[in-house]
Hints:
Elements: E1 7-17, H1 21-25, H2 27-40, E2 45-52, E3 58-64, E4 67-74, E5 79-87, H3 93-104, E6 108-118, E7 128-129, E8 132-141, E9 144-153, E10 158-159, E11 163-169, E12 175-182
Antiparallel strand pairs: 1-5, 1-6, 2-3, 3-4, 4-5, 7-10, 8-9, 11-12
Helix pairs in contact: 2-3
Amino acid sequence: xYSQQSFLGRHIIAEFFNADFDALNKGKELxxxxxxxxxxxxxxxxxxxxHTFEPHGVSSVVIIQxxxxxxxxxxxxxxxxxDFFTCGDTVNPWKSFxxxxxxxxxxKYNCMELQRGATQLMKEDAHKTVGQVxxxxxxxxxxxMTTKIGSQAINxxxxxxYTAYTAWELNDDLQQHVTTIAKILEAK
Length: 188
């Protein structure tokens, strides 16, 4: 099953913005649509579960033979965070993403795909490199806040063919250090 691939699974991490309040807040319906999204991608559903929060919000997970799909919603913000993780080469997680995006009526979205389980790294002779990583630094001073890009040495193991990205902040509201190691995919 995995002999032709250089990785074991595909993991889409997605955010949906300006989505429909009711679609984000109706737990049973959202769970059913998550199952439909899994079927749309060709996945085999093993089980599903959802929890509806008060006064609003839903978490739902669909366990598939090929891994899982999950979503967490904040209807009051028109926002949802979702993961579409599939293993093997028979299921296309982008079909699940597109199905759910349409169901949620999201006007904007942000997503990325990670290749999980790099088979090259599972070999004993896997080559790793240590290198310099660009980092974004936030400097606060007085009433003004300035963001600048600087170079900072960070020791990390980065597999050959992959690139490491590091940033201090993702946006003005979320301030944390995040490092992502991802293989950049060319558009097909």
